[in-house]
Design brief:
single chain; about 140 residues; alpha+beta; Arc Repressor Mutant, subunit A; 2 domains; three-stranded antiparallel sheet; three-stranded mixed sheet; globular
């Protein structure tokens, strides 16, 4: 029986994306992609890494997340100027954002219809439209 290297899939995907499969990238890959689709901040990933015994600086985590995003392995979701999530689901979809909890939930792309978009400026092409629907509990006051 042939044993499968534990990071073989990650090594292959990183190399295919033009990224060197360093020890830290592989460890972050395992944390990000071993549990299905998810939304994570760099700070939450750092805490998760520390809990798993992976020593990695926040700057290295940000660098890896941005490299994964540039390689289309992750999708960046900016909720506001101060809060950025990284989404392991790179398919066409949108998000619910629960403001009180800081939680993102996927909305299938076909569930949202966007119309009336303005013409793009000269020399520019529309890449995608991201919709974030902000939620609060229905029993919360608006105060």
């Amino acid at each position: 029986m042939m044993s499968v290297r534990p990071y073989a899939d990650a090594v292959e995907k990183l190399r295919a994306a033009g990224l060197r499969p360093t020890r830290q990238r592989l460890a972050l890959w395992k944390l990000l992609f071993s549990g299905g689709d998810r939304h994570v901040t760099a700070e939450a990933l750092q805490a998760e890494a520390a809990g798993a015994g992976v020593r990695v600086s926040l700057a290295t985590i940000y660098n890896a997340l941005h490299q994964f995003t540039q390689a289309d392995l992750l999708r960046e979701v900016v909720v506001d100027g101060a809060k950025t999530y990284f989404d392991t689901n790179t398919t066409d979809h949108h998000h619910f954002y629960v403001e009180r909890d800081g939680e993102l939930m996927d909305i299938p792309g076909e569930a949202v219809e966007v119309s009336g978009l303005p013409a793009t400026p000269a020399g520019m092409a529309l890449e995608r439209v991201d919709v974030i629907v902000r939620l609060r509990a229905s029993d919360e006051s608006k105060a």
